[in-house]
What we know:
Layout: H1 3-15, H2 22-45, H3 61-64, H4 68-84, E1 90-93, E2 96-99, H5 102-118, H6 126-151, H7 169-175, E3 182-183, E4 186-187, H8 188-194, H9 196-216, H10 221-239, H11 248-251, H12 257-270, H13 273-280, H14 287-316, E5 328-330, E6 336-338, H15 342-345, H16 349-362, H17 374-398, H18 400-408
Helix pairs in contact: 2-6, 2-7, 2-12, 2-13, 4-6, 6-12, 8-9, 8-12, 9-10, 9-12, 9-13, 10-14, 10-16, 14-16, 16-17, 17-18
Amino acid sequence: MRPNSQAAKHRSSHDTEREFGGTLGAVCIPIFLPLTVLFLICVSRSPEASVLQWPPPLPSADQLWEPLAPVLLLGWIGLHALLYLTPVGKVPFSFVCFSLSGFHGLCISGVLLMLLLGLGAPLGYLFELLLPLAVCAIAVSFLLSVYLYIRSFWAPSHALALGGNTGNPLYDFFIGRELNPRIGNFDLKYFCELRPGLIGWVVINLGMLMKEVELRGSPSLAMILINSFQLLYVADALWNEEAVLTTMDIVHDGFGFMLVFGDLAWVPFTYGLQAAFLVVHPQALSSLGAAAIIALNGIGYYIFRKSNSQKNQFRRDPSHPSVARLETIATATGKRLLVSGWWGLVRHPNYLGDLLMALAWSLPCGFSHLLPYFYVIYFTVLLIHREARDERQCRAKYGLAWDTYCRRVPYRIFPYIY
């Protein structure tokens, strides 16, 4: 890169619009989100399970620490680091090589868990370890984020994320300075994105199911549905792992506290709150109710998978018979925007499917408590915010073509609503 273009990039990175509340958000979020994780776990285990209870249920120091927790957490991360390094499913992407072996990691984890259960391992003890494990995951998130921030100052300028190189240390620590930090061939961001946290979420769910078996002799229908739905979601993400290489997290956002904490602590300990809730607050579910919930999840999954597959196929090969006849709009960048098929219905049909599934994960918990619906409420806010970020970036990238696209596809996520 020529010196003058380097200077231009440097100026633009410092002038980039700061997101998530800028400096104030960068200070508050790393404080309040970890506390939120611990609060939600405590609420899910309390008899009232009320997010509005005051004073909130506070854990004792003994409940926050268990020597076994860091051993399990670091062992789990180490196991998946080894599986990541196995020579399975490598794929070149943007002149680097990513290990697409996440689904193999899920399968191997499943085999190991079945062996442990066969040997009588008390997997239900994960219920008691939830708080200590969450504390350790939060601590690891902070330590890794500090390491990433320090090492980013030795990274070449072309390896820095545009939005994370503002010169404000608090904001850059939060958002991430380096785009894809690597140790040799080990991509730290890509590893954390889909491995220990996402598969760990499934393991925690299984632990909640086994705890329910210990307490009541068998898992409830509601618990089985939640475990099944969320296992399908994780397995789908790992089976279609290549698709994550084009997401905003990988191609745009730096790897800082925001993504580290989200991957290692937020996802495994908040996305499965429904299972933890059911351990203490069992819910009866009729066959008709279960059938309706299964249908809702199935519809959501169908929309989610079909729309993502259509987009990915179009990116790989626009001449493929399944997408060749779709109507498109040309852009100045040479890329084309889909305005028919799933992507002519709304601008983000995959988000619509995601939200329908999120609702289906909460409904087995009944309507007596708000806590099980935390995920669908949070996820709605997250996807609307993400859609707004995507809107800004696409308008800047495609210009007038994006305005034409928006006129052709006026609804963002919900048809005829939003």
